[in-house]
Structures are given as structure tokens and as C-alpha cells.
Design brief:
CATH superfamily of chain A: Metal-dependent hydrolases
Oligomer: homodimer
Helix content of chain A: 25-40%
CATH class of chain A: Alpha Beta
Number of domains of chain A: 1
Order of helices and strands of chain A: EHEHEHEHEHEHEHEHEHHH
Strand content of chain A: 5-15%
Largest sheet of chain A: 6 strands, parallel
Largest interface: A-B, 22 and 22 residues
Number of strands of chain A: 9
């Protein structure tokens, strides 16, 4: 047996022909790819140009993802649809009009903050969390209007609950796990998970070792049992995958992800001075060819074939269908 | 009788609810609107944001034009489809990758030069015209690939002939008239008109008084007779309208169009020290409600109803259908 459709709702690889080939071999029909961490508007345009080049050069393996139709198109043609997202609102700088411009350029997810306070919301590494800012409320409304999904993966708890409340459309935590399973600043409380599910939002389970119990040694069974426990809390329709795969990235990239341009002292984020680099991925999830392991793991902890299909991709497909179009076509 | 469809392939108005209302009243189904003269990339993004706001606020009168389907959609819903164009390649700065980014944002026409030498081609006010530059050849190829039309309205003759030769897809002179009728630096030789027609390109006849015989006093009959003479040279399938309407613009705008940021001394372009501002439009073409005058004028000089329909909009509609999609969908 294999899943009906595989969608991974977060990757940040050092993209290459090798990885595009692995997406095809792994039958991954869609990936939400981060295209900005700390980049400003113009720097992110350069990333778009690089992706345009990828789409042109590797058109036999990948295609631009704009709507859920592209996922189906990709699946039928044995390709992978790439959907863009930001882990930080830096590409909109301080201009709300840039939300729609980015949507026009294919961006479908934006985190309101990345670890730190942003103009919009508080990050999960801040000491105090005042909630969504004035501009944040306006930007959520604008994202709702144009069809860009609010992502609170790296945000603080109060801001996250606040965003769920303010947003008129379901939001996501694209890549994180329950703190109940593995206590980590980036993992989420049951309060957040419940509020997310009640608002028809979704979580993508992360395979980034700092988010896993026993880190790189986390067993497939432990990971899949965690998913089963989360399904008890959130229901089986609110969960999917968001692997946070950062394949082939040099350690300079994780340093940049953590430090961007905001500090002159080294911040280790989820790492530490004696463990500063990218951690090793679990043996059972090394790259995009390993989703079948998770499929089997989910069956082994007792999920029905139907529920496994939901988790492996059908939930995200439904979510994409509901989320990427403008809210009211007549007002656009 | 009225035309089947009206398309004006160049306007640069001081856009307002009043003008959008006139487009609807005049039953203009599509306009190619200039959104950049000398703006760089980021400045042009601000113009896109302003247009996004227009599309949102005035959705009952205008809609975003991306393909010829939008013209039909606009006509059926009694709206006007707005297609974007640049009169200068300044918004791509020196980065060929920005051609595709602008196409994604809806830009469908780009002049390779505006009066002066650009990185791509020579303008019609330069003394010497070496033809299309190295980068110009690459950018034409890229425009051909993504579906952005080369516009040589303000370019010099040798560069124009060179562009026609290099481009693998038909190009346009969106707004100009034959020099044979009215000698002006911006009007075009029969050599250019013939080469344009032989390559399936199109010209849009300008109503900007500096391009008209007797300027603001030009008669409707003289204008329509000129169209009849041009049809003899180019054939009736290569001609349409490109009014160059600059409605409600203050004179500071024509000064900026001519001087941009490239000179510290005042350049009067087609004007002169004692006539520096926008000239008055002909009495029979004041705004978008006056296209029916031209329709009647064309009938009066002997065009068949069928040919008038071609000139008023059907030729542009066919050209749009052939020009705005990527050249080879499989390679994108």
C-alpha cells in the first residue's frame, strides 16, 4: 500500500537536481518551500528569480504551485508542485500592499514572526508576548482577503492564540510538534493545538530533530504514536506533515536562520555552543524518498488506511483548496 | 452601428473613478495602461500596489488583464480590462530575471527604450543608433519566452528594424503614426511600417497632438484618411488604436516623462519652450467616450464595417491572444 497523495508542508533544502529527483522518486506531489527567512523585499525577489529558473530548467520534475489544482496536475504528471512561504514577514517590510504582490508571485504562507518580535507578532524566543500588533491585525485581514495562510510555527503562545481568534480563515502551524510529547520552545501546548483544531486550522508534524523526543534517535514508532495522541486531541482532519527538512544545507545556513541580521552576538537557537550545527535527521527520514516509512509507521500504530491517507496528504490538499483563493472574488 | 469590441493599446491617464466611469460609458473593453516611465524596480512595485487598490475598489468598472480571456470577460460584464506596460525598461534595471517577475505581475508590454539610449536599445532622440545591444538581444529572447511584447514606439529606426528581425514573436509600435502623414521624430517611416506588418506586428494609431497633422486642430477626416493610407501599406490586419491619452495629468507629468532623472537641464521633447505642457486633444477625441466618433470617421472614409471592427479592437484582441502566453509551455 502507498498513500493516495503525499504533501509535505515545510521544507528548506539546498535545492538541487538531486533533491528534485528525490521528490519525484518519493512521489511527493506538493511541498511548501520556505523562500525567505530574513530577506527584505528585494532580496526575496532574487529568490523568486532563482525559483523561476528552477521551474524552467527542471520542468520535468517540478512545477509552480498556485492552487490545489497544481497538486493534482503534479501528481498526474509525476512531478512535485512547489508552494512558496516565508518564515518571517520581512519580505513585506512595513508595507501592507506587498502582501497582495507576494500572493501574485505565488506566496501562499507567511509566518507572522520568526523567534523574535516582528512588526506583526511575537516570536517564541521573546520573554514577553503582548499578542498581535496593530499592523499585525491589518496584515492578517489582508492575508485573509488575498488568500495567504497565516503560519504561527515560530510564534509565541499568546500571539498564536490571538492570531487564531483574529483570522477569519483557518491558520496553520506548518512545522512543530506537541510540547506534551517533547518539551521544546518551538513545540506547542495542548491549548494551542485545541484552539487550532477548533478553528479548522492544521498542524504539520516536524521531523527536525530538535522537535523530536530523543532528537536524532527518535524512533519511528515514538513519532507515529505522538501523531496518534495528537489525533486524539485535534481530530484526524487537522493534522499532516511539515518535515522541516533542511537537506544539504551547510551549517552556515542554520547560523543565518538563527541570527539573520538582527544580532552581533551568536544566538544558538535550539542548538547550543557544543552542538551548533544542523542535527542529523532520524535514520528513517533522510530525504524525500522516505515518506513511505512514515506511511507504514502510521499503519503500525493502528491508523486505518483512510486516516493515513488524510495525514500523508489529503488533509493538506483540502486545506490548500480552501485557503489559496481570494476571500471574495467580487471584491478583487 | 457600433464596434464589436473597443481596445485602446496605450493610455497614461491620471486614473480616477471619473476615468473608470468613462471607460465603461465608452464601452472600452481593454486598455494597455503605462505603469512606468522612468521608475526603477521598487518604484514600479508601488505602482502595482496602487493598481491592486484600484482593482479592489473599482471592481465594478475595471479588472486585471492577464490574457485575451479577460477582454472577453470585461466586455460581457461591461467592464474594462487593464493590461500593464512599461515605456522604458528601467523596471528591470540590469536583471534579465525581472522580465519574468514582471510578467507574473501582469506586465504585457515593454518598450526597449524611451527617447534615450537604454541598456537594450536606442531611443528616437539619440543622434546615433547602433541597434539592439548585447543585453537587448537577450531580453528580447526572454520577453519572447515568457510572453511580454516588445514595444518600439519611442525607439530609433535602426533599433526598431533590428528588434523586428531579432524577435521570434511579432512586436508592436503601440502608439505612433506614419511620418509620411506627419513628419515627427516619434512617427515612423514606411520602411518600419512595412517591416512591422511583414512580421505580423501591429501599430496603434496615436491621438497625441504632437503626432497629428495640424496637431490639436487635426480633423477626424484627416486622421481617418491617414489610417486608410496606412492600411494600403500595412494591410488592415496590422493596425489598431493606441491613443496615448494622458487625461487629467498636470503639466509636471509631461515634464517628468521627458526628463525623468537623467538630466539637470530641461528637455522639451516634442514640445518647445513656448509650448512646454500637454497639448489639447482634438475636439473629437477628448476621453474614452469618444471612440464612436472614430468608428464613424472610419466608415466615412470608406472602410467596411468589418474592417472598422478589426481596427477598433478585433486586431488587438487577436494579437493579445497570440502574444501573452509563454512561448513553449513545456519549457516553463
Amino acid at each position: 500500500m502507498k498513500p493516495h497523495i503525499i504533501i509535505d508542508n515545510l521544507q528548506y533544502n539546498n535545492w538541487s537536481p538531486k533533491i528534485f529527483e528525490q521528490l519525484v522518486k518519493g512521489q511527493v506531489s506538493a511541498v511548501h518551500a520556505t523562500i525567505a527567512y530574513h530577506e527584505d523585499f528585494q532580496e526575496t525577489i532574487l529568490n523568486i528569480i532563482q525559483w523561476n529558473r528552477f521551474f524552467q530548467t527542471h520542468h520535468d520534475k517540478i512545477l509552480r504551485g498556485s492552487s490545489h489544482h497544481d497538486v493534482i496536475k503534479a501528481q498526474k504528471s509525476k512531478k512535485c508542485a512547489i508552494f512558496f512561504g516565508f518564515q518571517n514577514p520581512s519580505p513585506i517590510e512595513d508595507h501592507i500592499g506587498l502582501v497582495e504582490v507576494w500572493h501574485q508571485l505565488g506566496v501562499r504562507f507567511m509566518q507572522l514572526s520568526y523567534n523574535n518580535q516582528s512588526l506583526l507578532a511575537t516570536g517564541c524566543y521573546e520573554q514577553n508576548d503582548p499578542g498581535i500588533t496593530r499592523m499585525g491585525k491589518e496584515v492578517i485581514r489582508e492575508m485573509n482577503r488575498v488568500g495567504m495562510v497565516v503560519d504561527m510555527s515560530h510564534s509565541a503562545e499568546k500571539s498564536t492564540l490571538h492570531a487564531i481568534e483574529i483570522s477569519s480563515r483557518p491558520i496553520v502551524i506548518s512545522h512543530a510538534n506537541p510540547a506534551q510529547w517533547h518539551e521544546a520552545r518551538r513545540n506547542k501546548s495542548n491549548t494551542v493545538l485545541k484552539a487550532l483544531a477548533e478553528s479548522n486550522g492544521m498542524i504539520g508534524f516536524s521531523l527536525y530533530p530538535h522537535h523530536l523526543k530523543n532528537q536524532s534517535q527518535c524512533s519511528l514508532e515514538s513519532f507515529c504514536s505522538m501523531i496518534a495522541q495528537t489525533a486524539e486531541i485535534m481530530g484526524v482532519h487537522s493534522i499532516g506533515l511539515g518535515s522541516d527538512l533542511c537537506q544539504d544545507q551547510p551549517n552556515s545556513v542554520v547560523e543565518w536562520m538563527r541570527n539573520g541580521t538582527w544580532t552581533r552576538t551568536l544566538d544558538f537557537g535550539e542548538g547550543s555552543p557544543d552542538n551548533p550545527g544542523f542535527p542529523d535527521m532520524p535514520s528513517w527520514f533522510q530525504d524525500n524518498r522516505d515518506f513511505l516509512n512514515i506511511h507504514k509507521g502510521l499503519r503500525d500504530v493502528g491508523f486505518s488506511e483512510q486516516d493515513v491517507n488524510l495525514i500523508m496528504g489529503e488533509n493538506w490538499l483540502r486545506f490548500y483548496e480552501q485557503s489559496f483563493s481570494p476571500q471574495n472574488q467580487n471584491n478583487l
